[in-house]
Specification:
With 397 residues, the protein is of the alpha+beta class. It folds into 3 domains: 217 residues, Jelly Rolls (Sandwich); 30 residues, no CATH class; 102 residues, Alpha-Beta Complex (Outer Surface Protein A, domain 3). The chain is built from 13 helices and 17 strands. The strands form 4 sheets. It has an 8-stranded antiparallel beta sheet, with helices on one face.
Length: 397
């Protein structure tokens, strides 16, 4: 788990899983105030606000626990200057580096992640004390923010159990800390918390708080039940009407339900009931395969000659399934392709994470004819979006 490990560094990933994940919040100080500046900074925020059309509720303002009515763009500066926190939800959908980060976390944890942005200008809190129904990592980019973390009052709450309908714990925070640039704060699902930006414009070294919230939305047993419920309508027995039932006579309905229960138990004991769901988890919530023009239009695929480099998407799992003698099925994202005439080991080399060049392929399979076999195969895989042509500048350094 290279990406998650780098976010938590110097904290041990093994310690994080054993002592903190879903159990206890932790502040991780890095002593590197520019640790996350490559992911996002003030310049990128300005670019989003100046050149992107971001509508409510993806962009909104909160002050002292209250969501403010959406204002015209001309009023945004005034709202922030008056102490409102600016929030951009799903900022990873608008920034390539953050989109890659969210996809990599999805790859490493197996579950959907999203990234929201918070800009808090002065010593006021945005949200009141609340809990989230997903795991949370706070990445502090600039400024400082004080956080107060309280224990859970409901174990493993889901989205239907809202904190706004619950009573916060009447106990002191078990963690009270100040996040500085480069620091990380992990908050488990269900743990109550709130934050206050430090400092004010009157201070000489004042810098408003800018942080990213990385949320990891793990699936639960309830999600498996939901998936099962979506599979059952494929069987007509579950779509049939229940028998008519008068107020005093229920045996016919009871008998029908018992038969359905027995069929459900029998189906749950088949390998497909779990195996199909595991396959679903492997591919749900992944980003679509990237566009790569003009290569996907069949142009400039081999401009690098023998040094032309090909690589598969680093954000998707690749399934390589032998389906016959020298026949292999490739599944990546929503794309499928069948490669014929190549041994499975050679096909696996085409999808290794570090990619390959035409020269590599010539060394692996000197028996293949470049003009009639190699170029048509790679052209097909590139135009289908299954392989990508690595840009020449990436090849050079």
């Amino acid at each position: 788990m290279k990406v998650l490990s780098s976010l938590l560094y110097p904290y041990s990933l093994e310690t994080f899983w054993a002592e903190n994940w879903t159990k206890k919040a932790v502040l991780i100080s890095s002593n590197q105030d520019s640790k996350f500046s490559h992911l996002f900074d003030w310049e990128q925020l300005n670019y989003l606000l100046n050149y992107h059309q971001i509508n409510y509720p993806d962009l909104r303002f909160v002050q002292d626990g209250v969501s403010l009515p959406m204002a015209k763009k001309e009023q945004w500066l005034e709202l922030i200057q008056q102490g409102a926190t600016l929030i951009i939800n799903g900022v990873h959908n608008r920034t390539p580096k953050l989109r890659k980060l969210a996809a990599q976390i999805r790859q490493e944890t197996g579950y959907r992640s999203q990234i929201n942005l918070y800009c808090s200008p002065r010593s006021e809190k945005g949200f009141n004390c609340h809990y989230d129904t997903h795991e949370v990592l706070i990445l502090q980019i600039d400024g400082e923010k004080e956080w107060l973390i309280f224990p859970e009052t409901i174990a493993a709450p889901v989205s239907t159990i809202r904190s706004s309908e619950q009573i916060p714990p009447d106990v002191p925070p078990y963690l009270q800390c100040i996040l500085k640039p480069g620091d990380v704060l992990y908050i488990p699902r269900g743990h109550w918390h709130y934050a206050i930006a430090c400092g004010s414009p009157a201070e000489e070294d004042y810098s408003p708080s800018l942080h990213l919230t990385l949320g990891i939305d793990c699936q639960t047993g309830l999600d498996w039940m939901t998936w099962l419920g979506q599979k059952l309508p494929e069987n007509p027995e579950w779509r049939e009407n229940l028998p008519l039932m008068s107020q005093a006579d229920r045996p016919a309905v009871q008998n029908h339900l018992e038969k359905l229960r027995d069929r459900l138990i029998a189906w749950l004991q088949t390998p497909e009931a779990i195996g199909d769901y595991l396959d679903y988890l492997g591919y749900c919530d992944r980003p679509p395969l990237p566009f790569s023009f003009p290569h996907q239009l069949g142009s400039k695929i081999f401009d690098g000659g023998l040094d032309s480099r090909f690589i598969c998407s680093q954000l998707h799992l690749v399934q390589i399934l032998p389906i016959g003698e020298n026949q292999t099925q490739i599944i990546i994202g929503s794309k499928q392709a069948t490669i014929k005439g190549l041994p499975p080991d050679l096909v696996k080399n085409l999808f290794r994470p570090e990619g390959f060049t035409l020269l590599d392929l010539a060394e692996w399979a000197p028996h293949l004819d470049v003009e009639t076999e190699v170029i048509p195969l790679l052209t097909r895989l590139v135009t289908q979006g299954i392989l990508l042509v690595e840009p020449s500048e990436a090849i050079g350094g």
